[in-house]
Amino acid sequence: MSAALLLDVAAGGLLLGGLYALIAVGLNLQYGLMRVLNVAHGEFLMIGGYVTYLLHVHAGVDPLVSLVASGPVVFAAGVGVHAVLYRRLLRQERTREELEANSLLISFGLLFILQNGALLLWSADLRGYQYLDQPLRVLGTVFPANRVVAFAMAAIVTAWLLLFLRRTLAGAAVRALMQDPVGARLMGINVARVHALCFGLGVGLAAVSGSLLSMLFELTPFVGLPYTITALVVIILGGLGSVGGSLVGGLILGVVESLGVHFTAPDLRMVISYAVLALVLILRPYGLFNPAAHRPGQSVQA
Amino acid sequence: MGTQIGRRRFLQVAAGSAAALGLPRGTRAQSPVRIGFTLSATGPYAVGAGITQRPNYDLWVEQVNAKGGLAVAGQGRRPIQLVEHDDRSEIETAVRLYEKMVTDDKVDLLLPPWGTAMNFAVGPVASKHGYPLIAPTAASLKLAELGLPSFYGMLAQPDAMMGALAGFLKDVKRAQGLNKVAVIHVSDLFGLEQQGALMPLLKEAGFEIVEAKAYPLGVKDLTDVLKGIKAKGAEVLVGLTYPPDTILATTQAKAVDFNPRVFYTSVGTAFPFFRDRFKESAEGVLGMGAWNPKVPYPGAKAYFDAHVAKHKKEPDRWASAFAYAALQILEETVGKVGLDRPKIKAHLDATRFSTVVGPVKFTKGWNQATPGMVGQWQKGEFEVIWPPERATAKAVVPKPAWG
């Protein structure tokens, strides 16, 4: 085992981790803020992937350009879904447990509807295309070019999101609600609107991730759920409600998985990621970077 | 329960003797033959089921009904009516549905679901009730060991399939001195059995095995594994893979610039999708099993054309034709002996059939007339390249660089 190969494998994990991070940030915007656990998150990713696939194969649109379509289209769809399914649920005063349980039920329903809708529209055939699948030589090692490009795009989108959260008024409202829901409301923040924005942003980011993933992997209507689970591991790892935590968590998970798989077998990938999760939860029960960690048991009001 | 079966048996005998006496059956002669099956329309098996089995079931029913129906010995032609369900890729759901189709829907005949594990589960249900099941997508010695009385397998089994691969590799080793082999396999029944059959053959032939790794069904990434294999200098890659991972392994081998002289993947390699997806890069990729419209069997080309005409897509170059051949066998058998299931079984056991995949002869329920085969994509066609007596083209080794 040479050090060069080890570094090579770790860097490969980092590239995939970048995508994990982007998917997880989207989920975290929903769960961290609203306590709405959207198990259909991966389905929006799948839809983003299909949008890119269809645009590329039928209209010759470059997959990177298609992000401009898949992101906003799914963002708008997300705002719509929020208005129809979640707004009333969130408006009614409920306990956190009740809200989580009901939103879970809704998103399971959404998962089935989206998956089967995709199945009716596009059938279960594998869909994929070749895009930048040449090897790219960097510092003596080889990386798939499309993976490097996907990572770069994920980084750009994430940077954009961070800027949005830090530099805009809407972003400030999101952060305020994450930090202190009651205080934010007292300051006159329109909670329903911020929630709609976050839900839309969350699924929009999932769609962008899906578009990027479609450059690397084949699509079927069933690709989404495993990514939802990975994203869930990442946000718990990084801390609920912490955007930075999701980023670091995603990268860590990518690298640890890659190295773990390299030394054992791909069979153990899930075992490895759950082991990392268990370890972090034992050492830091609220995740690596949970902003609410110093307020355990705080009830979230929506 | 006992009396119920007794009553049903009585009715069957009564109906049978009525038929024997030549009593007029009136409208009953035109009542449809009801054929039940489940295929995965959703879940991980949906890809394979939707490519290899579903289009052939639909094509066959359309063809038979266009002829006026299924010829049933002694009853003339009766239209086919399908009783079908989605098993959602859940094995327990499939088992429940097959029980229901037999006991509740009381279908006349059953067709198999897709995939080794599925057939492993529903085979015993069909056999328990005496229904013949002719499976085009089951490859398992463990299944054969069950010795199910009315289960029939169309494909060459792991020992024969891996025997063919090992035979081909030995030939290449002799001619070109290839020695370092890496094997990856999907850790479900299919991959485990193929791997179990292949490894002793490779060792026996004196190959150096530089890597042997398992990966889970639904694996998302194989780059790390492939990079490791490349670093160990493998000259031959054998992937005992299922459709999504076949695509994954090929995409990622290309992306990390791993171009071994022999590149073999399993289920899915023979899909036209594979060729369309990889275009020039598909050139020289080897795959498990093989069939193409150039094979010299009666009806092969006509079947290919009919499939393209009906579905606007080509059949896959392996098990699709076996799925259609299984239906040909069923049709011929019912035409000869009717719907009496013991008679169907006796006919299946005794007859050498001529189909679009060539002669088929079941011995203890398994088709022994089709050898294990190796195929290779060459200029847009999946050529049979091993064994030599079945070959439609010569193997291209080493595989050209990824296009």
Structure description:
The complex is a heterodimer of chains A (302) and B (403). Chain A has 302 residues and is an all-alpha fold. Chain A has a domain at 26-222. Chain A has helices spanning 3-34, 41-59, 63-91, 96-122, 145-167, 169-179, 181-186, 191-213, 224-238, 243-263, 269-283, and strands at 135-138, 141-144. Chain A has a two-stranded antiparallel sheet. In chain A, strand 1 (135-138) and strand 2 form a beta hairpin. In chain A, helix 3 (63-91) packs antiparallel against helix 8 (191-213) and helix 6 crosses helix 8 (191-213). With 403 residues, chain B is of the alpha/beta class. Helix content of chain B is 44%, strand content 19%. Chain B has helices spanning 2-20, 46-66, 91-103, 116-128, 141-146, 158-176, 189-204, 223-231, 243-255, 272-278, 300-311, 319-337, 341-350, and strands at residues 33-39, 70-72, 76-78, 80-86, 109-110, 133-135, 151-153, 180-186, 208-215, 236-240, 262-265, 286-288, 352-355, 358-363, 366-367, 374-378, 381-386. A 7-stranded mixed sheet of chain B has the order 9-8-10-11-12-16-17, with helices on both faces. Chain B has a 3-stranded parallel sheet with strand order 4-1-5, with helices on both faces. The longest helix of chain B is centred in the first third of the chain and has 21 residues, at 46-66. The radius of gyration of chain B is 22 Å and the shape is globular. The termini of chain B are far apart. Classes of the chains: A mainly alpha (302), B alpha/beta (403).
Give the CATH architecture of the largest domain in chain B. Answer: 3-Layer(aba) Sandwich
Helix content of chain B: 40-55%
From the spread of the alpha carbons, the general shape of chain B counts as globular
Which class best fits the helix and strand makeup of chain B? alpha/beta
Major sheet attributes of chain B: 7 strands, mixed
